[in-house]
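Aim 2 progress update. The chain analyzed this quarter is reproduced below.
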Amino acid sequence: MGKKVKKEEPELSDVGKLMIKNTIEDDKQKQEILKDLKKNPRYKKYFAPYNKQTVQMFIRAYADAKWRYLKYGEMYLKKEDKETSRYKYRAEQCFWQIQQKKLFNVQCLWRAEKIQLPGILLSREFEYWEKAIKTCPYIDPVTEDEYNLYLDYLNSDYYNYGNSDEYCDWQGLYMFHGDEECDDDYPDWYKFYDDRKGTGDLIKLSDLRGDKELKYTKLAAANRMEIYKKEHPEYTDPVSDPRPMISFGDETLVEFIKKCDDPILLKYHELMDRADYDDDEFPELSEALEDLKNAEVPIIVEEGSCWQDTIIKSMASHQIRQLNKALPIVYDEYLFRLQNNIAFGYTDEEIESQERERKMVDDSFKTSILLGRKLNSEPEDFNF
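Predicted structure tokens:
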């Protein structure tokens, strides 16, 4: 019989060695926790009223939980902090809405010619200050009552998840003035503020200044059109064309492809544009899915009528919780800057946006007003 050859054990990889080392350390820590729970006098008083056998079961379960908390707790805490930081940018945008509403109220009074503001010549300048709201000189600093009022709004039924305020025209009074159909576009925060502060009548004031400006800009526009017609005799006024205007809707697009273009475009249209129509019933779904994808912490699931509704409601509740955590941080930083006379900064992109708006006011709007004044045989100034 041949000699038995001793089987060589394969050498562990570095990863394998590390896993064994970690397992040994984890077991050692678990045993230390168990020993402490069983022997430490500070726990005996708590366990005394309970059945001894169930206490032992509890100790084993608690030891496992405590080990997990100690091993992974800091990691989850960092994730929670990271999630709050992720929502801090949104919280900052929310915070400055307080000042946007205050400036909007000032604009209403200015347009009604009930107040004058040094340096403000035209209504379009409020749109510049919308973009430079942090340094606007026409409103007082945020008070604690105003900050608390916004927190009330955030936790009220007025606040709607999915209402993107990123592109809101906060100072675009003309969008809402005297037009009930535009009421849905009036910011929810403004509605809440008006209801709580009794400022709803400000939007109803006569836009005296705006009407005067409109008169001059119309004169200027008509003058420019006359000059254009003379320089372009081939121009045809759209109003003089008796034929119906073509629709830009989806039905016309589909009809045009069927009658005039390659049928494969219909398939592309169905694949590429279908999502736009699928989201009609759940307009907040895209934002909710994006928020869910980027979440750093577990999300509490809310009840919903369907999976889309469940995701939207869950992310809406999560957003409110995170904003409630982040807004106090934003407010503390705001107060610190005020108390220490530290300027509020803007990003390069925000500064570029401010400069574009200022240039539009100076190069276009002011020029149109002055031309309109001239055409109306009035002084070429802004004293009207």
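Residues 52-111 form the longest helix (60 residues). The chain is about 65% helix and 0% strand. These observations will guide the mutagenesis experiments scheduled for the next reporting period.
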